[in-house]
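Quick one: structure tokens for this chain, please?
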Amino acid sequence: MSRRGALQLTGAVVLAIILQTSVLPVYIADYFKPDLLLIIMVYLALRESYQAGTPLAWLLGLLKDVFSGLYLGLNAFTFLIIFLVIKSVADRLYAESGFLFVVTVTVATLACLTANLLLLFMFTNTPGIAYSIGAGMIPHVMVNCFAASLVILLPVFAREEETV
């Protein structure tokens, strides 16, 4: 990752955290807030290498846990596993496609919610967690798809990667 790419990623993460934790909760109901850090992680999985993306995926999940998570490490573990799965599949596909990005965000959102639900069932005694996650699954997936479709309109997404 170049210095310019690292600076753009840092700016995107800071902007996503500010939007996700302080701006969007004021104006949007809980079920309709996009998971911007998950979208950034999917972008990293499709575009970056294992060496750069693996620690970044874990840190993005950890940031999500710190700012809006219930259990520290839950989203970090989930983001890391989803990154590794997407990266192993993305190496075999044309990862520059905008449609693939939206589909991958959809699958990653469903996988993240399912993995978090399974981990919470295994390690906690939280009554009603299945209902709360299940009730918000469809709106959450739809909002993440919409946010991903907006991301593919950005000039950074359409930019060709430089070969060094």
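The chain has a mean pLDDT of 86.
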